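User: I've been going back and forth on whether these two constructs are worth ordering. Before I decide, could you fold them both?

Assistant: Sure. I'll take them in the order you sent them. The first construct and its structure tokens:
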Amino acid sequence: MLCSHMSSYLNENRCLFGVCICPKTYYISQHSNIIHNGSLTLPMIGAILYDLPSLRYVYCFIFICLALIGLINNIFSIMTFIRERIQYTICGVYLIFYSLFSLLLMILIMTNVIIAVYYDKYIFRLWACYGYPYLSTVTVYISMLISSIIVIEHVCHLYFNFDPFRSRKQPVQITLLFLLLISISNLDKIFGRTLSIDEVGYYSCSYKDFSYKYWSNILYYIYIIIPCFIHFTCLICILLILIKRHPLRKIILYQSYFTPSVFIIFCMTLNGLYLYLFDFHLTYSSGYLIRLHIGFIFLLYTPQIFTYMIYVMPNNDYVKEFYQIWFYRKLCCCFYDKKRHRIDFEILNILCTVSPLSESIKTV
């Protein structure tokens, strides 16, 4: 749990930018015996604040760098997927939605730092307690479902030769349906939280984990485990048909079909194993477990951070389309002009060096 004010009973060196981690005694409600150990409003920042003070700014630097990498990746992805040859395909529409939701997630991640700085403002307390947990969960879940639909489209194209240029209404309708279902099913992230203030004036955001635990587990299985199973099943099907049709040495040419699935399965499997094997409690965890917790939280965001790398780079057609966008062409022109000027200067320098030598030879 994050608190908005400092007090005499707060742990020493547990505050950053005015945001403090409360000790165990603060988690106990004065009106009940409920201990809100799992009521972290911002798990990432909470874990950072609870670790060694010397590492906090290192965490923040890494945090901001990864978010910026995610922003750049998804902006480049959107610029690629809106190209005419891609946006008219079924997968192209899904990829545009995937990149948009991933871009939104990167912006949400960046708000963690802003919340940490301005947490004493009531509007940011409301956002940290209700807005951020809900929206970040929705974006992660819908990105997982969209990625599973994309790999299903790949299997249908390989096995049944489905037309990739079918009506684009279908992916739009399916995505909106996913968004509606996920938004409604995760309302516990809003209504299950309570931003309260005690008689001393300290704010706290608690989550009724004991009431919504089983529902949250069911949603995790539906939106994370089942899409991972779909990715794994489709990955096996894709590899089998590629091995059947092509020599092993040429399978790498079709890496765009299986690279995203391998990457997503790897990240989500590690995150699932961590949740299954470790019962994390911030108040009682060692520094090692806190750092491990921070790393495994990022695993949920990793596929959305590296959208360009897992969906554009393995696909030669997408890379060619990326080369045609105005940004890349402008960048290439700048580098070409600089290189041309450098070559011209070197040639001129050589001519100036050779010219006096020729004159001396003529004189002799």
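The second construct, handled the same way:
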Amino acid sequence: MEKKEHFFELPYWEYNLLRHNLDVMHIEKNVCDNLIGTMLNLEGKTKDNLKARLDLKDMGIRQELHLKEQPNDKYFIPPACYTMSTTEKDLFLMVLKKLKVPDGYASNISRCVNLKERKLTNLKSHDGHILMQDIFPLALRSSTHKQVLAIVSQLSSFFKALCSKVLDPKELDQLESNVALTLCHMEKIFPPGFFTIMVHLVIHLVGEAKLGGPVHYHWMYPIERYLVRLKEYVRNRAYPEGSIAEGYIADECLTFCSRYLEGVETAFNRPQRNYDIIHNAEEYKFSSGGRFVGKAESTVVHHKLLAQAHRYILLHSDLISEYRRSVWL
């Protein structure tokens, strides 16, 4: 006899269309972890292991990936198209190690790269979000098979379109059919063990976006950030609830009082983290604010690069747009 969920006993449950509200943040992070663990062949995280190859033999599929018996009673695991070689791992990890992004765009992903052991560690949910949507299609170009790169790029485009601020209902129908084909193509490449529950839930994300709207309003990023803030209030671990309540009240009182303080730096009048005062700013045509981060390095700019930068400014700067129009007309 099947067990009936208690949710169905609620009087409003039959009218609740968005019953599960799948979290895009955790699903995207788990898919990213599966890809990284399988392609880098990380011990304990890869979905392509001995049991996965035995499953292929039991199902009678993908004979080229079956275990090869050796004369010394050992087995050889043939490399798959999604498994990176040592050189490919070094290329992929070196791209992430030298990656530089604008301030506030992502965390320092290079801190997670271990070139010696050829692995990625301590990736946060937002790191997986950035890797999945923007970095993978570029970083994997020279590090994996073209067929695998095409599938990862399709999956990356899906998450990027799903997480956009504005969703078009007409485009969502096409997006839903495309992700179904993408998962079918992935089943032809990756082993069956790759497709965990989280990977299968990807196909339901578009349907929930149709009901709940843009994913920014019902994913877990703001909740996780707020929980971290509440944990910072804990001073007495024996009574965490009381510590959080007292810390919350104190924070609200300080926030209220800071709105009426003059001549004091508060959270409301504090300059930006990378804000630098520019003296004689009116003498500059272009804004030159900012400062160096990290160790300074001297670079010689060749005439060709200098000419390209000068030409780019002339063609794209809004400050001289009127001059361009007058010259071209």
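Notes on the second construct follow. Strands lie at 68-69, 75-76, 113-114, 119-120. The longest strand covers residues 68-69.
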